[in-house]
Design goal:
The protein is mainly alpha-helical. It has ten helices and four strands. Helices cover 61% and strands 6% of the residues.
Length: 190
């Protein structure tokens, strides 16, 4: 579903309906909007960054947008097609807590080896802090990316091996209200 067609086929609609939490009519509306914004039927990384810049005009969202793009781009071809877009949107806006945690873990696990290192987490947290800029006032124990990462690792890295696996991530996320709040940020918006 990369290249532009004005309408989805019945088969495409059925596949999207079974792989997302959207109804047929919603899928058709999202597709129409996607083609309006992406006439080629694909969203490239540069345009994706531009979208993030609109939502975070007081910070620098470019690095964070790069990492989000990587998670959206499931087939790693350098563009996001409608299927990839809708599936990611479905998880982030309507997914279960478990689906959202798995998606977030993939974001932080930059090298995809099944573990989040302090460096990987620092990379993402630093990108988030740069994105929000001075819009958010943080408590003193989280006012730098390094402090936030230390706090998260103290909470999540139960076996103190310097990395967080999926089980530790899930357990720790349920204990940190800020993480769960962030995961539910888009609930009900679409």
């Amino acid at each position: 579903m990369g290249k532009s067609n004005s309408k989805l086929t019945t088969e495409q609609l059925t596949v999207l309906q079974s792989s997302t939490k959207f109804e047929r009519k919603e899928i058709q509306q999202w597709y129409k909007g996607f083609l309006k914004d992406c006439p080629t039927g694909e969203l490239n990384q540069s345009d994706f960054k531009g979208i993030y810049k609109q939502f975070f005009p007081f910070g620098d969202p470019s690095r964070f947008a790069d990492y989000i793009f990587k998670v959206f781009d499931r087939n790693h071809n350098g563009t996001i097609d409608f299927t990839e877009f809708l599936q990611a949107l479905s998880i982030t806006s309507r997914g279960s807590p478990e689906e959202k945690l798995k998606w977030a873990f993939e974001l932080y696990d930059i090298d995809g080896n099944g573990h989040i290192t302090k460096d990987e987490m620092l990379t993402i947290v630093d990108a988030i802090y740069r994105m929000v800029g001075s819009m958010v006032q943080l408590p003193e124990d989280e006012d730098t990316p390094e402090k936030r990462v230390e706090k998260i690792f103290h909470l999540m890295d139960k076996n103190n091996d310097g990395r967080i696996d999926m089980a530790e991530f899930k357990e720790g996320s349920h204990q940190d209200p800020l993480i769960m709040q962030a995961l539910n940020l888009y609930d009900g918006l679409v």
